[in-house]
Amino acid sequence: SHEEQAAIAQLAEKMRSYAQKEYESRLYDGPEGLLKEIRMENIFSTSFSKKALIVYILSPFYYPESEISHTNVREVRAMSDTLRELGYDVDVVNSYYAGEVDAGRYDLLIGFRRPFEELLPRVRKECISVYYTTEASPYFANPAELKRILYFEERNGRRLSYERQNHACLDLERLQLADGAICIGNDWALSTYRGMFRRCFRQNVSSTELKRDAAHKA
Questions:
Q1: pTM score, two decimals?
Q2: Which of 26, 51, 69, 189 has its CA 20 to 30 A from that of 8?
Q3: What is the pLDDT along the chain (218 residues), one digit of tens a residue?
Q4: Which helix (H) or strand (E) element contains residue 151?
Q5: Ramachandran assignment for 93, one of left (phi > 0), alpha (psi -120 to 50 degrees), beta (any other)
Q6: 97-110 burial, b for 16+ CB within 10 Å, e for fewer?
Q7: Contact assessment for residue 131 and residue 180, using Cβ atoms and an 8 Å cutoff
């Protein structure tokens, strides 16, 4: 009947939508995402004499038509464009990349998390290395988050989960090898990295378009 066909079509659409969301959820820049297995080489197909590696997020290049849903999308695109303008062939991996990298091929390394830190001792002496951070040091952020959780428990009698804990492990001995760092945030965020790098510069937070619905939620 027409009703049965409509019900089947509706079910098929739900299944298609579910499968698509499940597939897309695996292609993201996270510790469980499939993009951690991918390295994109020479994303602009240039032929310069210098090579740079960005260890940040990969999805904006894997899905070049995707919307700017987070400031990190704008940041990594600006970063790659700037490196191209400076005469670098640009490779990109995400910060959970699990593959091997030939550290000796790069003239500039910028990024964060484990792949960046593990590359630092192996890059050539002439390679410029820049740690890029978008938040306060976990040595400061994690105790602050625990304090907020305990304060909430005192007021409400409920213990929240530690969802906002920063699990990145900063190897201070390796980070001393970096030429410098760029910290996205305010002066306090910058201060949490004092002593970890020889030079650390602060950059204002980038912005995305403010949607009307979000502006009126408060």
A1: 0.76
A2: 26
A3: 777 777 777 777 777 665 555 555 556 777 777 788 889 999 999 999 999 999 999 988 887 776 666 788 888 999 999 999 999 999 999 998 988 999 999 999 999 988 999 999 999 999 999 999 888 888 887 788 888 888 888 899 888 777 666 666 678 888 889 999 999 888 988 898 888 888 888 887 665 444 445 444 44
A4: helix 138-156
A5: beta
A6: beeebebeebbbbb
A7: yes
